[in-house]
């Protein structure tokens, strides 16, 4: 498999040829290189294998860092919703903006590593920034520390530093791990990327399960302990830094090569300028457009730039995969009903553990079973084909996600169009009541007292809003009331007796299901005195007397039987029962009896009834697709890059994730649509992109580093030492 033959460490110091410097191999009898970059240093082996001991420190570092990142991210959306009380659109936008920033900043880390500090020092310095960001984020989650403006500022500063830290070290850690292997151990290096990915998902698996427990089950400052949920990832990032530094004496450290990215840009710019300048001249045409830079730049640099630009061109279609992948995590997961194991019910933000769990299972299955079996069948399963297969599997997963979303929407409110509203009747009086609305034939039968209301009835208006006459027939009396109704709104007409007279009030209901699997609840106070309600020791709600209605409160799915109702008469027990996933409830306080508040509960919007098992097929597909796509792409981008540009090309690979998240933001803002329709759109786009990528991959040629070095060794002369010239041996993938 050509793409998996990693190029290996070029055991040399590289400088620009225009300054009369060379790639010089250091022979066994030469003095070792001086400074901080002992390229030829051999690390002790792990248990007699060809794996350097140094990679153990790198793998443990990556495990702790990924625990830190994914643990923080697992509770981030709920943090925005519950702590900041942002709406779903703003929370989702900030989440994707943060994710995109985490994958734009690898460019910064790559430039620092390849041009200035080297990979080792870049990882150290940016890890310190990473830890500081986590600490600021944790402090910002302490409720007693200032007002919400202070919390938002600290959190955004913390997230920015985290994005800079995690993104900056991303291209360096994987490339640094590849650097630890000796040239002849290409097979072990290829397997290292699978081990590396295993450590990523092991950290993700544990953190996405544990961190939500720290948030929800541990209480601090009288509410969910977000400070602890962010503090533990901060501690793990600190541990990651300590572990990485502990292995310092074992690492093979490659020196930075100067401002490589600037040289690449200058080379490309000069080639384009020179080609345009001579487009009408009689100068013979050249094999490649970059060859027009040969008047100023060395063949070596031009060859390297050719390698990088061809790979980056191949990466152009790849962001669509990541657009689907992050959509899968962010939206559909929290709409299903997580399973209960005994008395324990998974928290909504714990559902994300399925993806890393499946990846931990799939990696050994694919590496030890599926890929060898395919090779036995004499099928050339190249990296391009693996990545295309991963894209197909992800597209299939999203097709299934669209089906699940349609099933979920069966319990949602109907979507309203202009000049259309929904209405229902809640009869809180003692006897049946029949409601008629001016020129509308909606309610045919009287509504019994405290009868669970039927489905909402559709109300057609004559414009954006209309004043309507409501008539209540009650115990032989006909009582008129006038209310103004607006289009695309949902209403409940509550009918009640106040001081012996029948009265009514039109209140606004939720227009859609609560987001992220939360439950919505509001209260109607049927007492003749004001009440203050406390739910789960953290939700305080004040409701005025005589059938006033509170605003909706969003709660996590749970049984709430330990609430308190505080009135002028004293404090009484409030039992709400189960508030289920995605449901909306109206709870009427009817009276006080026997030391407890008596209530009547109506389920306005039905709870989610789609079990998590419906999502298992799509999780299996997208996780298998990620293993084929992401691990292969990580190793491919390393193997196809020159030694001086490995971090830069790793950053280019990670940049595809950033572009994918940005694409999600643009689509969500530019063309709001139903979730299932968005899933279908992304599925179609991914299949189209997969076809384009496959065509591009068919014409892509890869470099076999071993063949290149063998050819170059034949051309070397003793006077110049071991000079390396990147002459590409083209092999079709």
TrEMBL record:
It catalyses: carnosine(out) + 2 H(+)(out) = carnosine(in) + 2 H(+)(in); N-acetyl-D-muramoyl-L-alanyl-D-isoglutamine(out) + 3 H(+)(out) = N-acetyl-D-muramoyl-L-alanyl-D-isoglutamine(in) + 3 H(+)(in); an L-amino acid tripeptide(out) + 2 H(+)(out) = an L-amino acid tripeptide(in) + 2 H(+)(in); a dipeptide(out) + 2 H(+)(out) = a dipeptide(in) + 2 H(+)(in). One of its GO terms (cellular component) is apical plasma membrane. The chain crosses the membrane at residues 67-86, 92-111, 123-143, 149-173, 194-214, 226-251, 307-325, 353-374, 386-404, 619-639, 651-673, 679-701. It comes from the Eukaryota. Pfam families: PTR2 (PF00854). SUPFAM superfamilies: MFS general substrate transporter. Keywords: Cell membrane, Cytoplasmic vesicle, Glycoprotein, Immunity, Innate immunity, Membrane, Peptide transport, Phosphoprotein, Protein transport, Symport, Transmembrane, Transmembrane helix, Transport. It is a multi-pass membrane protein. One of its GO terms (biological process) is dipeptide import across plasma membrane. Proton-coupled amino-acid transporter that transports oligopeptides of 2 to 4 amino acids with a preference for dipeptides. Transports neutral and anionic dipeptides with a proton to peptide stoichiometry of 2:1 or 3:1. In kidney, involved in the absorption of circulating di- and tripeptides from the glomerular filtrate. Can also transport beta-lactam antibiotics, such as the aminocephalosporin cefadroxil, and other antiviral and anticancer drugs. Transports the dipeptide-like aminopeptidase inhibitor bestatin. Also able to transport carnosine. Belongs to the major facilitator superfamily. Proton-dependent oligopeptide transporter (POT/PTR) (TC 2.A.17) family. This is Solute carrier family 15 member 2. It comes from Strigops habroptila.
